[in-house]
Amino acid sequence: MTNHGMEAIMDSGNSSVTAHTSTWSVDEQGIDALELEASRGVLENLRTLLYGERMWKLIEPQIIQSEMNFKKWIEESDGKYTGDRVNLEITGTSTEELFGTLAQVLGGVMLEGEERKQSYLEGALPANPEHYCFSPEGPGGVETMGGLPTVTFPAYVEEDQVPDYIRGMIDTSYDVSRVGSSVLRDGSTQCYVLQQFRDVEGGMEISLDIFYPAACPSWVVEHHLKHYTVEFRNGVRLATAARRAEAEAAAAEQDSAPVETSAAPAAGIDGTWRIEGSAAGTKREFDLTLTTEGNAAQGTISAPDGRGADFSGGRVDGTTVTFKANLGMKVTFTLEFDGDSLTGKMKPGLLPGTGVTGQRVS
Polar residues composition bias: which ranges (predicted)? Predict the structure, then answer.
């Protein structure tokens, strides 16, 4: 699909423009920045208005065409895949901070209803302009691949679930190496990925590989490397904003006068509890060991996969306990205790809060 007008404005040729007002001046680069700002505003407006079924119906013919293209390439490739890599050098953000943001961007596909919508608008939408919507047919998304909106269902997988040559590209000098695959709606493998991360002095380094069916035109791979570059740059900015907001909130809390709790701590809160909820869109259970002293709470929260954290500085207000724990991202728990059961909310990072329930174990 060629738009000659759009092609023309991307080629400055031999011309140049500067602009001046009473308060500012911009050159060609500055005008590009103005255009980018305006484009982002229009995209946000349209994707918010079209969220859900309206967007799906609008682009469904293109989704079907993209599926036909990829099925043809898969059939012609005879099980072979081709790929390439982009390396990113990042300052000011660590792997832990970025992983928290990626979990928010990717994890929203597991949510439902209004929580899923808010996760898309706050995470997937700003991460890349080519993120059209989450799939209404399961935990997948629609983004531009092969030049058209494409619905896939991505997941990180075990190393033995990707081709040998991809496993052979894993570099042990990276702190984290993850492999994954995406499938089309018929279950055929549309692509593989290898993503590797390591912390360095002052920041981090990322290596991102994408592998498409070998019969794909080379520009399909090249386009995805550009997609990766925008997506992870914006992910770094989201992580930076989250860190800044957290620091500002902590500073405000520290500077504010002590807040009187409205009720004395209730008896019987201490103990071990099994909580059911979700983190970054993934449904899971947590074991909470809680100890209170006056209006302060501390303890440990862990998941069956071994991920867990100690926490302190929690607050007790009658039968309500609020605390924060680092479970790959900062998660705020607000729990209301009633005898041997509890209800409440957990809010992972920038994602909307999700409901939790729990029972006393001991």
Answer: 12-21
